[in-house]
Automatic annotation (TrEMBL):
PANTHER family: PROTEASE M1 ZINC METALLOPROTEASE (PTHR11533), PUROMYCIN-SENSITIVE AMINOPEPTIDASE-RELATED (PTHR11533:SF174). This is PSA aminopeptidase. Belongs to the peptidase M1 family. The keyword Metal-binding does not apply. The gene is Npepps. Gene3D superfamilies: 1.25.50.20.
Length: 232
């Protein structure tokens, strides 16, 4: 993909190569494919091809998603659990119908306390329901954040809040980032999640940083977080 971004080879050729990995079982390979498709999706988000790349993601990731399923199989290792989370999150964000329906079902049971999601499934489920959710979904997620006993769970939720799509809800997430509910060192993760969540999120996050620059700079001056904020 770096060669395609530099104009050395055609992006079409890169996508053809990606299609060849459809039966690949290796987590590292899928992680690399996911990262590169994410970059491509960002580049195409300002064009008419954005929905086409979502269709491509669904086509490439659905066979491995069906093979892995939602639940661990006997003898699975740590990388299999990581791969399942990666694949289901990618399919969910891309609007794969069966993945979205199952994520919503499991999220409802999780919130109601009927069946608590395993740690490795929480991020993909959260990001899926948020990406295709509404104000009620966001409110539920913020409630889960408030109720979480473990900082690890709070951070997990903070990183995915930016998946929400509607402009007014994106603003709500950005306001939340500077609230007392979020530790100062974690504010950057929330803003970064918004910036990476969508085209609308990137614009909103950039405006938010400019509008609140004085407060943000005073928080992080001289520290690595201010440079990380600018990078995201």
């Amino acid at each position: 993909l770096p060669q395609a971004r530099a104009g050395i080879i055609s992006t079409v050729e890169v996508l053809k190569v990606m299609e060849a990995f459809v039966n690949e079982p290796n987590y590292t390979v899928w992680s690399d494919l996911s990262c590169n498709l994410g970059i491509l999706g960002t580049l195409l988000s300002h064009t008419d091809f954005y929905e086409d790349i979502q269709v491509f993601v669904r086509d490439v990731f659905s066979p491995i998603g069906e093979r892995l399923g939602w639940d661990p199989k006997p003898g699975e290792g740590h990388l299999d659990a990581l791969l399942r989370g990666l694949v289901l999150g990618k399919l969910g964000k891309a609007g794969h119908k069966a993945t979205l329906e199952e994520a919503r079902r499991r999220f409802k049971e999780h919130v109601e306390g009927k069946h608590i999601l395993s740690a490795d499934l929480r991020s993909p489920v959260y990001v899926t329901v948020l990406k295709h959710g509404d104000s009620s979904t966001l409110d539920t997620m913020l409630k889960l954040h408030k109720q979480a006993d473990m900082q690890e769970e709070k951070n997990r939720i903070e990183r995915v809040l930016g998946a929400i799509s509607q402009p007014e809800l994106i603003q709500k997430v950005l306001t939340f980032a500077l609230s007392e509910e979020v530790r100062p060192q974690d504010t950057v993760s929330v803003i970064g999640g918004v910036a990476g969540g969508s085209k609308q999120g990137r614009k909103a996050a950039w405006k938010f940083v400019r509008d609140n620059w004085e407060e943000l700079y005073n928080r992080y001056q001289g520290g690595f977080l201010i440079s990380r904020l600018i990078k995201v």
